[in-house]
Amino acid sequence: MLHYAVVFFVIALIAALFGFGGIAAGAAGIAQLLFVLFIVLAVASFVIGLFRR
Predict the structure, then answer these.
(1) Total structural domains within the chain
(2) 15 touches 24 (CB < 8 A)
(3) Could you tell me which residues come within 8 angstroms of residue 20 by beta carbon, excluding any fewer than 6 positions away?
(4) Domain that holds residue 17
(5) Is residue 2 over pLDDT 90?
(6) For residue 32, with 0-12 CB atoms within 10 Å meaning exposed, 13-18 middle and 19 or more buried, which class applies?
(7) Is the pLDDT of residue 52 over 80?
(8) Using CA atoms, how far apart are residues 25 and 29, in angstroms rounded to an integer?
(9) d(C-alpha 4, C-alpha 17), whole Å
(10) N or C: fewer beta carbons within 10 Å in the chain?
């Protein structure tokens, strides 16, 4: 999932470089959403792993 966040971030950077503001904003929004989802799932996995021991 983190891989996809980075891919969308790179797409946003390239789109912004070429002047496609709408596409860049959309890709950046998707990248941000995927990154936050990754962080939430990583923290949840860590907490669950602590309680299983």
Answers:
(1) 1
(2) yes
(3) none
(4) 2-52
(5) no
(6) middle
(7) yes
(8) 6
(9) 20
(10) C
